[in-house]
Write a structure and sequence with these properties.
The protein is about 5% helix and about 35% strand. It is mainly β. The strands form 3 sheets. A 7-stranded mixed sheet has the order 1-9-10-8-11-12-13, with helices on one face. Strands 4, 5, 6 and 7 form a 4-stranded antiparallel sheet that branches. The chain has a two-stranded antiparallel ribbon with strand order 2-3.
């Protein structure tokens, strides 16, 4: 079963000169702050004094006030993944419309159900922010691909569209944050076996 979480909130003020804010060139698409959410959950099989808390799965959000029902919640602003805490890939994708975001979420959950983080009970999260509409999707990397990546994605119309005639050709742009904090726009690193 697919679950899509809709989160509509007022994000932190936007400061255009913030050097830590992810920006994809040449489109110039800006992205909101990403947060890592950690905390504890109660064991469902124990009630009353026998109940114990255990660490909950790490979640990711664009909402700095999220708690996901955790207790002792810790929310940390991040730009990329920390090898000691995070695993897999996190796509932070900009969408032109809410419908395109919903279509993306549906396609990903239909096509790749094995990649969805079942423990979070959320296949994808859709956020409406002052910077636009974004989805977060946490997946495991394909075999042979690097791990611990945050992948910011935006689309733009290709610069050479005049050569394409009346057709509009959309091009995906990537800003990939590597585990050491450096970045690349080379999306070929995501699928090294295809290169």
């Amino acid at each position: 079963m697919s679950t899509l979480a809709y989160l509509d909130y007022e994000p932190a003020p936007i400061h255009a000169a913030d050097p830590t804010e992810p920006v994809i060139a040449p489109s110039g698409q800006r992205f909101p702050q990403l947060y890592r959410l950690r905390g504890f959950s109660w064991e469902a099989e124990h009630a009353g004094p026998a109940a114990r808390q255990h660490p909950s799965p790490v979640l990711y959000t664009l909402d700095r006030t999220a708690t996901a029902g955790y207790s002792r919640t810790r929310i940390e602003p991040i730009r990329g993944f920390d090898r000691s805490v995070d695993s897999g890939w996190l796509y932070v994708r900009h969408h032109a419309t809410e419908q395109s975001a919903e279509g993306y979420c549906d396609a990903m959950t239909d096509r790749c159900p094995e990649n969805i983080d079942a423990e979070s009970h959320v296949d994808a999260a859709l956020f409406k922010t002052a910077l636009g509409i974004f989805t977060l999707l946490h997946t495991q990397p394909p075999p042979g691909a690097p791990d611990h990546l945050v992948i910011y994605v935006a689309k733009r119309i290709a610069a050479d569209r005049a050569a394409l005639g009346a057709k509009r050709r959309w091009v995906e742009e990537h800003l990939i944050v590597l585990p050491d904090g450096s970045t690349t726009s080379d999306s070929n690193i995501l699928f090294p076996n295809d290169a």
